[in-house]
Automatic annotation (TrEMBL):
The gene is gcvPB. This is Probable glycine dehydrogenase (decarboxylating) subunit 2. CDD domains: GDC-P. Signal peptide: none annotated. The glycine cleavage system is composed of four proteins: P, T, L and H. In this organism, the P 'protein' is a heterodimer of two subunits. Keywords: Oxidoreductase, Pyridoxal phosphate. Residues 34-303 form the Glycine cleavage system P-protein N-terminal domain. Its cofactor is pyridoxal 5'-phosphate. It comes from the Archaea. NCBIfam families: PRK04366.1. GO terms for biological process: glycine decarboxylation via glycine cleavage system. The modification N6-(pyridoxal phosphate)lysine is found at residue 272. It holds the Pfam family GcvP2_C. It comes from Thermococcus litoralis (strain ATCC 51850 / DSM 5473 / JCM 8560 / NS-C). Its EC number is 1.4.4.2.
Length: 499
């Protein structure tokens, strides 16, 4: 359990005392003539005045209020919040990585180009694709890149009528968003009773207007699309292309490749599958791989190797252009290659095996617990989606209440209310980096919450009780976000915030 800090603890500006010094700036260099326009000069510099120990204590207190992959299980479904090995950070922070600049001459950054080239070779082998761009900054950026490539391909062939993108109803929300941003009309494909793509509905949906289909395998229910070869056949026969959302690659890593399933375009979340930090908006990387017939449309530049030197190739006349400045989030690429080389072929295969084992162990331990229902197929891959709909109907305790109550056990909640096709969904992905003991503790917490829901539902409905902040009014937080400490003080004095 983390320290139960309170919001009435003083802010760093309130701790400030005139004359206290934590750092002394060096004396200015007198003989340097720096002309700063008057309009850009600060009139004052309002910084808190504290000693070094006070500053360290303050930020240590803040860190104790936080939760991350180094704290414990972080089972957000389809997010693959696995532990990030610290050796990745060592290499990413090496001076020869941290202090190079993208405007340097190619001859002076051969090592960086080699890192990118080698990473591409790994990704090609893992996915069954022919070429990769490493530019996209995240999964959604990779999705947009992929569908833009599909769009460019069809337009180049003169097939301007292909304006529809098929998306399963279990897809990630960014899939239809990315397709719409690229100018496509989104056609939703329903799932069958087993939680997979309904083949009859798919056959009825494809036409000369079909540009492609976006899906992930395993899907967001954690279920492997057993009919993927038939899906590929149907879409390809109609002239469309298959796009693979790589969010769930962790469940099949080293076992099967999207390229062998029939996919034409793949994006990978390096920050998920290949263990680089993410969350809070970044950093991330979403490389996009394509089959040979789509290589000409990749963003520029591509990294090439002529046997002696590495160089950047801008000679792609049909390229969709750039999707990220320079060459992508390079430090994330370094972390990913470090992870890949540390794990090796057998290690990556074991990642998938343990991730699937953990998800199914948790499934079997929780299955049958009062209030939780397991829809669709029982056997899952890397994640599982339970429904708390029976609990809601019988006790009034909702999935949101379960998630908030988990915080009182010192555990991070799973993804909730997604996918939308499961009512009161709890989407749990433990990943391969949690132990059996952690899984047991998580299941026991969910079982305890079930017991409370049926005996003392109010304790669950009013949770959390042990956190620094009690349950936040989501509507008020969205309409009146507290951005600065001054705003917080003003709203507190007016009685407009209750935390």
């Amino acid at each position: 359990m983390f320290r139960q800090a309170k919001w009435d603890e003083p802010l760093i500006f309130e701790l400030s005392k005139p004359g206290r010094i934590g750092f002394t700036l060096p004396e200015p260099i007198e003989d340097v003539d720096v002309q700063i326009p008057e309009g850009l000069r600060r009139k004052s510099l309002e910084l808190p005045e504290l000693s070094e120990p006070e500053i360290v204590k303050h930020y240590t207190r803040l860190s104790e209020m936080n939760y991350g992959v180094d704290s414990g299980i972080y089972p957000l479904g389809s997010c693959t919040m696995k532990y990030n090995p610290k050796i990745n950070e060592e290499f990413a922070n090496h001076p020869k990585v941290a202090f190079i600049h993208p405007y340097q001459d190619e001859r002076t950054v051969q090592g960086a180009l080699q890192i990118m080239w080698e990473l591409e070779q790994w990704l090609k082998e893992i996915t069954g694709m022919d070429r990769f761009t490493l530019q996209p900054a995240a999964g959604a950026n990779g999705e947009f890149t992929g569908v833009m490539i599909i769009r460019a391909y069809h337009l180049d062939r003169g097939e301007t009528q292909r304006t529809e993108m098929l998306v399963p109803d279990s897809a990630h929300g960014t899939n239809p968003a990315s397709a719409a941003m690229a100018g496509f009309k989104v056609i939703e494909i329903p799932s069958n009773e087993q939680g997979m793509v309904d083949l009859e509905a798919l056959e009825n949906a494809v036409s000369e207007r079909t540009a492609g289909i976006m899906l992930t395998n395993p899907n967001t229910l954690g279920i492997f699309e057993e009919d993927i070869l038939e899906i590929a056949k149907i879409v390809h026969k109609a002239g469309g292309l298959l796009y693979y959302d790589g969010a769930n690659l962790n469940g099949i890593l080293g076992k099967i490749r999207p390229g062998d399933m029939g996919f034409d375009v793949v994006h990978i979340n390096l920050h998920k599958t290949f263990s680089t930090p993410h969350g809070g908006g970044g950093p991330g990387a979403g490389p996009v791989g394509v089959k040979e017939h789509l290589v000409d449309y990749l963003p520029v530049p591509l990294v090439e190797f002529d046997g002696e030197k590495y160089y950047l190739n801008y000679d792609l006349p049909k390229s969709i252009g750039k999707v990220k400045e320079f060459y992508g989030n390079f430090a994330v690429l370094v972390r990913a290659l470090t992870y890949l080389k540390m794990m090796g072929r057998e290690g990556l295969r074991e990642v998938a095996e343990v991730a699937v084992l953990n998800a199914n162990y948790l499934t079997q331990k929780l299955k049958g617990t009062r209030g939780y229902e397991l829809p669709h197929k029982e056997l899952r891959k890397h994640e599982v989606v339970f429904s708390a709909e029976p609990m809601r109907k019988e006790t009034g305790v909702k999935t949101l209440d379960v998630a908030k109550r988990l915080l009182d056990f010192g555990l991070h909640a799973p993804t909730i209310y997604f996918p939308l096709i499961v009512h009161e969904a709890l989407m749990i992905e433990p990943t391969e980096t949690v132990s059996k003991e952690e899984l047991d503790a998580y299941v026991e917490a969910l079982k305890k919450i079930s017991e409370e829901a049926y005996t003392n539902p109010e304790i669950v409905k009013s949770a959390p009780h042990n956190t620094a902040v009690r349950r936040v009014d989501d509507v008020l937080a969205a309409k009146k976000p507290v951005i600065t400490w001054r705003m917080y003080k003003e709203l507190k004095e007016k009685g407009e915030v209750d935390y």
